[in-house]
Amino acid sequence: MVSGIGAKVFTFTSPAVIAGAFFAAVIKKERKILKAQKPWLFFFIGFCIMIIGILIFGCPTRLLLRAGYGDVYAIAAVAAMFAGIWTGTVIQRKRA
Amino acid sequence: MSAVLLTVVITFSGLITGYLAQRSRMCFIAGFRDFLFVRDTELLNGLFSFLLTVWLFSSLFTALGKIGPVIPEYQAQLLNSDFQSDNLIIGAPSLFRSAFFFVTLAGGFILGLLSVFAGGCVMRQHVLFAQGNMDALYYLAGFYSAVVVYYYFLQPVFAWVYE
What we know:
The structure holds 2 protein chains of 2 kinds.
Chain A: H1 13-27, H2 39-56, H3 60-69, H4 72-95
Chain B: H1 3-24, H2 28-38, H3 42-64, H4 72-77, H5 92-97, H6 99-118, H7 122-131, H8 134-154
Helix pairs in contact in B: 2-3, 7-8
């Protein structure tokens, strides 16, 4: 979790996002435990998304950040991501 | 700005991001997915306002000289390729000759496809885990174990992409 700003700066963003969302869910009473339905499917999807994210430098949030910054590669990736979402919704609608 | 102060600022902005993401159910995948399924444009508005904010403020801070026109990882990974890291407008021939462009296209496609099946983008899965969804716990377990697997096993395999 070393950021691009400098090697000495540690970005604890993902624990901080979890902590902030936990705080919000607790004080608004929206926190309830849901049992895992398909644990290995979700494990596989998370694994693949991290590998792809390392290869193309970004999760969907960071791709949008880079696209707003003016990076040509990120704009192409966001366009391809929208195409992927469209394909996924078509597959899900056929399955349902 | 010292490193400690910067770490504190980043951590607090992460806390605020988590709070707002939980309250607004913000997700960058579900914005377009909800639009395709039920023509609901609420989260898509959030996506485009995010993009607009990033565009305005990155333009402003680049004009003020606070941030440079360089994505930090590219210098490390694409040192000997034909990517010119000091100008953002890339010529079309060098763009279509680079393998990274096609890896980006294919990777973005698979990212969108798999995120629809998982039901949310990466930030949304963190928020769902904080709410108590145990599927998101398995998602995050796979997500962070992939870092270890990549850097110890898969990096030589993928080295040809950035040769």
